[in-house]
Specification:
This protein is an alpha/beta fold. Helix content is 31%, strand content 20%. Helix 5 packs parallel to helix 6 (121-129).
Length: 145
């Protein structure tokens, strides 16, 4: 989890810094942080559209320049030909419903997270799909990863 927290420091989101690490057999397969896609100006430069529109966290995800940390971790694994099937995700925040659908289809088996997120549908979907979710409230020194 400490690695996910470190990766979150690369975030270019003005509202929330999120980091993710996909791990299997105690090996880091991929990492990601939230921010605009490669080659696109970041919110640090353009301002936050969601803030300007007064949108609450967890709503209208499509109205954002950024991509979520979990999505970036999945994409990075795909770009480099790394299978994440059967891996675990360590994320600084509970994934949203959009990320949950991607993680379920990518066959992630367990989600470890530190902070919650204002999207309760993701928890329901993880439970229905049989993906274990573990809320870690403290630093992960000596964690299974």
């Amino acid at each position: 989890m400490e690695i996910a927290s470190l990766v979150a420091k690369r975030s270019t989101c003005l509202r929330r810094s999120v980091g993710a690490a996909i791990v299997k057999d105690k090996r880091i397969l991929s990492t990601g942080y939230n921010g605009a896609p490669s080659g696109i100006r970041h919110c640090l430069e353009t301002g936050c559209l969601r803030e300007q529109m007064g949108l609450a966290s967890g709503e209208r995800h499509e109205l954002c320049r950024g991509i979520h940390a979990e999505q970036n971790a999945i994409i990075q694994a795909a770009l480099h030909g790394v299978s994440i099937k059967g891996a675990d995700l360590y994320c600084t925040n509970l994934p949203c419903a959009i990320c949950a659908k991607m993680l379920i289809n990518a066959r992630i088996r367990k989600i470890y997270y530190q902070a919650g997120y204002a999207d309760h549908m993701s928890t329901q979907m993880f439970e229905e799909a049989g993906v274990a979710i573990v809320h870690l409230k403290h630093s992960m020194q000596g964690s299974p990863a």
